[in-house]
């Protein structure tokens, strides 16, 4: 399965957030945003990544960029995760993995010699018209949100 690439348009989707509200890809039209895919709520790497995005959330917003997290966990799990971690940005429930497959991040993984299907931790930076302008495959959680913010700031300064 191929990951969508820089220059591709964000696929049209709708998923439910932690409060069970429907969120559509079109809701972010006209705004730059980060879409990050992560494997599972409450796991060490996912907790680190969510916490770091949360700590930088106001800075992202001040720079005109929204943050959206997507995982196969259900709405109830996302609700608990958001409350425990004080996450103020939307976490979307991709329970049937449709959106993960559309982005090409649902694929084979290996852990301790075992092969299984799962979410490949990946991030996509999207511009105002829905075009992906930066892709981060195989993300390492610690420090990644700061890297995304720095890269966004660099891209923004080049536009001036």
Give a short overview.
By secondary structure, the protein is of the alpha+beta class.
Kindly state the number of beta strands. 9
Q: In CATH's first tier, which class applies?
A: Alpha Beta
Secondary-structure element pattern, one letter each: EEEHEHEHEEEEH
Shape: globular
The residue fraction in helices comes out at: 25-40%
Q: What fraction strand?
A: 25-35%
**CATH architecture assignment name:** 3-Layer(aba) Sandwich
Work out the helix count: 4
- What is the number of independent domains? 1
Per CATH, what is the topology?
Glutaredoxin
* Arithmetic mean of pLDDT: 92
Q: Uncertain regions: pLDDT < 50 for 5+ in a row?
A: none
User: How big is the Rg?
Assistant: 15 Å
- Estimated structural class: alpha+beta
End-to-end distance: 36 Å
Give me the side-by-side strand order of the main sheet: 2-1-5-4-3-8-9
For CATH, the homologous superfamily is named as Glutaredoxin
Largest sheet: 7 strands, mixed
Question: Please, could you describe this protein's structure?
Answer:
This protein is of the alpha+beta class. The chain has one domain: Glutaredoxin (3-Layer(aba) Sandwich). It has helices at 44-62, 75-85, 98-103, 144-159, and strands spanning 14-17, 22-24, 32-37, 65-71, 91-93, 106-111, 114-119, 122-126, 132-136. Strands 2-1-5-4-3-8-9 form a seven-stranded mixed β-sheet, with helices on one face. A two-stranded antiparallel sheet has the order 6-7. The relative contact order is 0.24. The mean pLDDT is 92.
């Amino acid at each position: 399965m191929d990951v969508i690439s820089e220059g591709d348009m964000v696929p049209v989707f709708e998923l439910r957030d932690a409060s069970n509200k429907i969120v559509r890809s079109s809701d972010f039209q006209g705004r730059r945003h980060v879409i990050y895919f992560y494997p599972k709520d409450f796991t060490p790497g996912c907790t680190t990544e969510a916490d770091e995005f949360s700590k930088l959330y106001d800075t992202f917003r001040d720079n005109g960029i929204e943050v959206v997290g997507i995982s196969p966990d259900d709405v109830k799990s996302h609700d608990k995760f958001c409350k425990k971690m004080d996450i103020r940005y939307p976490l979307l429930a991709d329970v049937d993995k449709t959106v993960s497959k559309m982005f090409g991040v649902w694929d084979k993984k290996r852990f301790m010699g075992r092969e299984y299907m799962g979410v490949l931790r990946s991030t996509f930076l999207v511009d105002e018209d829905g075009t992906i302008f930066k892709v981060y495959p195989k993300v390492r959680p610690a420090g990644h949100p700061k890297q995304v913010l720095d890269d966004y700031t660099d891209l923004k300064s080049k536009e001036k």
